[in-house]
Amino acid sequence: MQRITISLLLLLSGAAGMAQNPDLPNDFLSKEFHRQRREALRQKLPPRSVAVFFSAAVRNRSNDVDYEYHQDPDFYYLTGYKEPQSVLLIFKDKQKAPNGGLYDEIIFVQMRNELMEMWTGRRLGEEGVKKQWGIDNAFGNKEFKRYNLDFSKFDKVLFYDFKNDVRDNPRDSSDLADLITQFKQKANYPDPARLPVNKEEKNNLDTRSLSPLMAQLRQIKSPEEVELVRKAVLVSCQAQVEVMKAMRPGMSELEVQGIHEFVFKKYQAEDVGYPSIVGSGHNGCILHYEENYKPSIESKDLILMDLGAEYRGYTADITRTIPISGKFSPEQKQIYELVLKAQEEAMKICKPGTSFADLTQATRVTIDQGLKELGIIKEGEKHMYYPHGCCHHIGLDVHDKGEYNQLQEGMAITIEPGIYIPANSNCDPKWWNIAVRIEDDYLLTKDGYDHLSALAPRKVEDIEATMKLPSPLDSFVLPELPVKK
Predict the structure, then answer these.
(1) CB 322, CB 466: distance < 8 Å
(2) Strand runs (DSSP E) across 266-349, as ranges?
(3) Rounded mean pLDDT of the chain?
(4) pLDDT for 52-69, tens place per residue?
(5) Could you give the residue range(s) of every CATH 3.90.230.10 domain in the chain?
(6) Average pLDDT of 41-59?
(7) In angstroms, rounded to a whole number, what is the distance separating the alpha carbons of residues 309 and 260?
(8) Is residue 40 helix, strand or coil?
(9) Is it the case that residue 367 has pLDDT exceeding 80?
(10) How far, CA to CA in Å, does 195 sit from each of 162, 164, 184, 205?
(11) Does domain 2-216 sit in CATH 3.40.50.720?
(12) Is 418 within 8 Å of 338 (Cβ atoms)?
């Protein structure tokens, strides 16, 4: 285990990118990567078109506190820019500037503000975006209102339709709400907000084509992206290992979650890729259980842990199910090994040319046959013990954009079969409250796959052996908090 951890730290210390600020990590994606992605999209755009992207909205948590900001993944993919209140335009063809120059992209970004930067952090501003991200035509967002672009001259104006969930800050005349309003006016966006209003109405606004174009781009990971996905996965795997070593009856679900997320932070993963799922016993039967409130997990139960670190924007998605006591009961072992067999049947055919549907079918056939042999279902019986598909893309989103046809080299995907048997199911009660999901991450190669998450033990004997190892947290015992009587 020590050798693995040292290797992981060495990998995570590798420099790949652009950061000049000593306060920041140095392995972000490079500005050249983002420039290439903009050019790749430009090549896919239809003739005489423009694609318009807005930054993600700032979300309010409560009163005067906002949620930690997370950039829209498409906006980040194309620019590297992580600040709000911004809009990006990518043109198929060169446009003529008032000074006679030509350009094919332009971005309007959050402006520098000395007072606000004292409160909420440094801003790049237009000059910083030019220097750090190599977008020469960068302007403050106040300039968008004065940007005199005739959208009617384009055959297509591609953008994502609006959800009417952006707050307008009355003290800021160029925030995201204002940028959207200004765009709607410039592009003659119809009101009410349905495109088109009727079948007879003609306009050049296209809210459908951008998503599949971005899916085609984002589903194939570049070498730079692969390294970040790989790091996110390794961090998440090491967290699973550390939790296996630290697991003890009586811990809370929140404590288990906390160990995972502490390991994420220890390896400089800046966030979780999605809300952490830590479900013990019957809670494991809730597919997206996120409360994680159970104050004391019981020795007799399994605990299902579906967590993924986000590293430089890219997220892993890994699930392990382990016995809280350190040893599977006979029934738990039978269900676990059936899920593992289903996953390995899918892994046998995981290669370019196989369809996503083929992977799901391989797991479903195996699980149905195994449940029948265990007497849990009858031949041909419909059931809800395996109610989800087995695979999805991972990347900038945990369910990343991508097509779901055939596997292709360069895709990063999951394989995640599961069996969930809640109490009062139509089977022998000895199976009740057993929930098992095993989820791993894979990179499609030319002839097969690279099993990215192999570091986290999957087999029964390996899990039980890992749970016997000492944990550095064994001696970390906090005192009881004083309670006033």
Answers:
(1) no
(2) 271-272, 277-280, 302-307, 309-311, 314-315, 318-323
(3) 93
(4) 999 999 999 999 899 999
(5) 221-466
(6) 97
(7) 9
(8) helix
(9) yes
(10) 11, 14, 12, 8
(11) no
(12) no
